[in-house]
C-alpha cells in the first residue's frame, strides 16, 4: 500500500517550463515520435504515482515514451521526462519502470540542471558529427563541421555528475518506497542496464550500430548498483513492495525492439529504408547511427552523413548547399575534383574539396544522387587531406533502389511475452530470438537470467521475434 503523498508541493520555474514546452515537438521529431497508445498512458500513470512524493506538484511533470531504438531516459528542467521504448524492453516489472521515472523525476526535483556546465553540455543531441570528428581527425575540426550536423532539436540533455546520479538514485528509491513499490527494483534495474551495456559493447562491431552521444548521459558502474542495493535495504522493505510484473509485461507485448522500419533499419553493415526503397552498405569496421533526418557513419578514417534534399533537376545545388552548411561561410574550401557519373542506374554528381584547418588539411566530399523527380540523396564525407572519398568508395557505389518485394521483407523486431512450457530451456527459447548472433546472451540479458537458470512452466519471459509492420 502506498504511503500518504506529501501535501506540500511546489511548482517549477516558469522559464524552464516554457523552454521544455518549446523543445518538446523537436524532441519528438528527433526521436521517432511519442507512443500515444495505452502503453504511453500507462507510463504517464506510473510516473505521476512516484512524482506524488517528490515535493513538486505532480501536475508539473509530463512523461513521454519515445519511439527510439536507444536504451535511455532523460529529463529537462521544465518537468518533461522521456523514456525510450528500447529501455522499457529491458525492464521486467512495473517497479523497475517506476524507479527509472523516479530517478529522472529526482533530477528535476533536486534542480540538478542548475549545477551543470552549460557551455560544454548543451546540444548533446544535436551536433553528432561535429562532436565526434575531433577525436578522429584531431582537435579543432569540429568547428568546421558543426553546422552540418545540427538537428531540429536544440534540447540540452543532462550529463550529471556522479554525485548527482547517486542523489537521483537516492531520491528515486525514496519515491519508489513511499509509492508502495519494492525499492529493490532500483538495483535490479541498474544491473539490467549494466548487462545490456556490456552486451552491446560485444555486439556493436558486428551490428555496425553506434550508440549516440545522448545515450551516455547515465554512466553505470558496479559501485552505483551496489550503492542502490544498500540504500534500498536501508528502507527495510526490499522484497515487500509491489512489482506488478504481469501488468507490466502485458503492456510490453508487441513493443518494437531496435529499429522501426518506418525510420530505416540497420542490419549488419547495411542500411535499408523500405518506405524510401533504398539501401546502402558501409565499409567494414564503420558504425552507423540512424537519426530523424540523417544517417551518420563513423570509422577510423573518416566520418559521413547520408540525408535527403529536395531535387529540382540540379544536383549541383545539393552539393553547394552541403558545402555551405559544412563551412558556415567561415572557412574557405578548394574544389579539387568534380564530375558526373551513374551508379546503379542513378544519375550522380560529386565534388571533392579541400580545407585548411587548425589541425591540418581535411578533404570534404559530396556525392549527390537523383533518386526520383522530387528527391535527391547525398553522402557528405570528411577524411584526412589527400584521401578524398577513398575510405568510402565502396559505400558511395553501393546506394541503390530496392524493389517492392525486398521492401516488404523488412519486418520489425517485437517483444513476445511467452509462457514457459514443460521442456523449455534458455537455450531452446534463445533459438527463437530474431537475431543472427548472440541469441542466448540476448535472451538471458533481456530477462535478467543467469546462464544456468532453470525455467519453470508458466513462467513468463520475453522473446524478441519478427512482427508485422504497422
Helices and strands: which structural class? alpha+beta
How many individual domains? 3
Strand order of the largest sheet: 8-9-10-14-13-12-11
Task: From the alpha carbons, calculate the radius of gyration and give it in angstroms.
Answer: 24 Å
| Amount of beta strand | 15-25%
| Regions with little confidence, pLDDT below 50 for 5+ residues | 117-158
Nearest-integer average pLDDT: 86
The shape, in one word, is globular
User: Count of DSSP helices?
Assistant: 16
| Helicity level | 25-40%
Largest sheet: 7 strands, antiparallel
InterPro entries: LysM (IPR018392), Mito/Outer_Membr_Metalloprot (IPR051156), Peptidase_M48 (IPR001915)
GO molecular function, one term: metallopeptidase activity
Protein name: M48 family metalloprotease
Pfam family, one: Peptidase_M48
Layout: helices, strands, pairs:
Elements (H helix, E strand, L loop, with lengths): L13 H17 L7 H14 L10 E5 L6 E3 L4 E5 H6 L3 H16 L8 H4 L6 H10 L4 H8 L12 H17 L6 H23 L14 H13 L10 H8 L3 E2 L7 E3 L2 E4 L4 E4 L5 E4 L4 E5 L2 E9 L4 H13 L5 E11 L2 E12 L2 E11 L4 E10 L8 H4 L3 E2 L2 H5 L4 E7 L6 H5 L8 H9 L12 E7 L4
Parallel strand pairs: 1-3
Antiparallel strand pairs: 2-3, 4-16, 5-6, 6-7, 7-15, 8-9, 9-10, 10-14, 11-12, 12-13, 13-14, 16-17
Helix pairs in contact: 2-4, 4-8, 4-9, 6-7, 7-12, 8-10, 9-10, 9-16
Cofactor: Zn(2+)
InterPro entries: LysM, Mito/Outer_Membr_Metalloprot, Peptidase_M48
Protein name: M48 family metalloprotease
Amino acid at each position: 500500500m502506498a504511503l500518504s503523498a506529501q501535501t506540500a508541493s511546489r511548482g517549477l520555474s516558469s522559464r524552464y517550463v516554457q523552454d521544455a514546452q518549446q523543445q518538446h515537438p523537436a524532441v519528438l521529431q528527433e526521436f521517432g515520435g511519442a507512443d500515444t497508445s495505452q502503453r504511453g498512458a500507462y507510463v504517464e500513470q506510473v510516473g505521476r504515482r512516484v512524482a506524488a512524493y517528490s515535493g513538486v506538484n505532480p501536475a508539473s511533470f509530463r512523461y513521454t515514451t519515445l519511439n527510439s531504438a536507444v536504451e535511455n531516459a532523460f529529463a529537462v528542467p521544465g518537468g518533461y521526462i522521456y523514456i525510450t521504448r528500447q529501455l522499457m524492453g529491458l525492464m521486467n516489472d512495473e517497479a523497475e519502470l517506476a524507479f527509472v521515472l523516479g530517478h529522472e523525476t529526482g533530477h528535476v526535483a533536486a534542480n540538478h540542471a542548475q549545477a551543470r556546465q552549460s557551455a560544454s553540455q548543451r546540444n548533446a543531441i544535436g551536433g553528432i558529427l561535429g562532436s565526434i570528428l575531433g577525436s578522429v581527425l584531431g582537435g579543432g575540426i569540429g568547428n568546421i563541421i558543426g553546422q552540418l550536423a545540427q538537428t531540429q532539436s536544440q534540447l540540452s540533455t543532462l550529463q550529471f555528475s556522479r554525485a548527482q546520479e547517486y542523489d537521483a538514485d537516492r531520491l528515486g528509491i525514496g519515491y519508489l518506497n513511499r509509492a508502495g513499490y519494492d525499492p529493490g527494483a532500483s538495483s535490479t534495474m541498474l544491473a539490467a542496464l549494466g548487462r545490456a551495456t556490456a552486451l552491446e559493447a560485444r555486439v556493436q562491431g558486428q551490428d555496425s550500430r553506434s550508440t549516440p552521444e545522448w545515450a551516455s548521459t547515465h554512466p553505470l558502474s558496479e559501485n552505483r548498483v551496489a550503492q542502490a542495493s544498500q540504500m534500498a535495504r536501508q528502507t527495510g522493505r526490499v522484497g515487500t513492495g509491489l512489482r506488478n510484473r504481469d501488468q507490466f509485461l502485458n503492456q510490453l507485448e508487441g513493443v518494437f525492439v531496435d529499429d522501426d522500419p518506418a525510420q530505416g533499419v540497420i542490419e549488419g553493415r547495411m542500411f535499408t529504408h523500405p518506405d524510401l526503397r533504398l539501401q546502402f552498405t558501409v565499409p567494414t569496421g564503420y558504425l552507423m547511427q540512424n537519426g530523424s533526418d540523417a544517417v551518420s557513419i563513423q570509422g577510423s578514417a573518416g566520418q559521413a552523413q547520408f540525408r535527403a534534399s529536395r531535387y529540382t533537376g540540379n544536383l549541383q545545388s545539393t552539393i553547394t548547399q552541403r558545402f555551405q552548411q559544412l563551412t558556415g561561410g567561415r572557412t574557405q574550401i578548394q574544389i579539387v575534383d568534380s564530375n558526373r557519373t551513374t551508379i546503379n542506374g542513378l544519375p550522380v554528381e560529386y565534388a571533392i574539396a579541400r580545407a585548411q584547418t587548425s589541425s591540418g588539411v581535411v578533404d570534404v566530399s559530396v556525392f549527390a544522387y537523383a533518386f526520383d523527380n522530387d528527391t535527391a540523396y547525398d553522402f557528405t564525407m570528411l577524411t584526412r587531406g589527400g584521401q578524398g572519398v577513398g575510405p568510402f568508395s565502396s559505400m558511395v557505389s553501393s546506394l541503390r533502389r530496392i524493389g517492392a518485394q525486398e521492401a516488404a521483407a523488412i519486418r520489425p523486431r517485437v517483444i513476445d511475452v511467452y509462457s514457459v512450457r514443460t521442456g523449455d530451456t534458455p537455450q531452446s527459447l534463445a533459438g527463437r530470438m530474431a537475431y543472427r548472433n548472440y541469441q542466448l546472451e540476448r535472451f538471458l540479458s533481456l530477462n535478467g537470467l543467469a546462464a544456468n537458470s532453470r525455467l519453470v512452466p508458466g513462467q513468463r519471459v520475453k522473446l524478441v521475434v519478427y512482427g508485422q509492420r504497422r
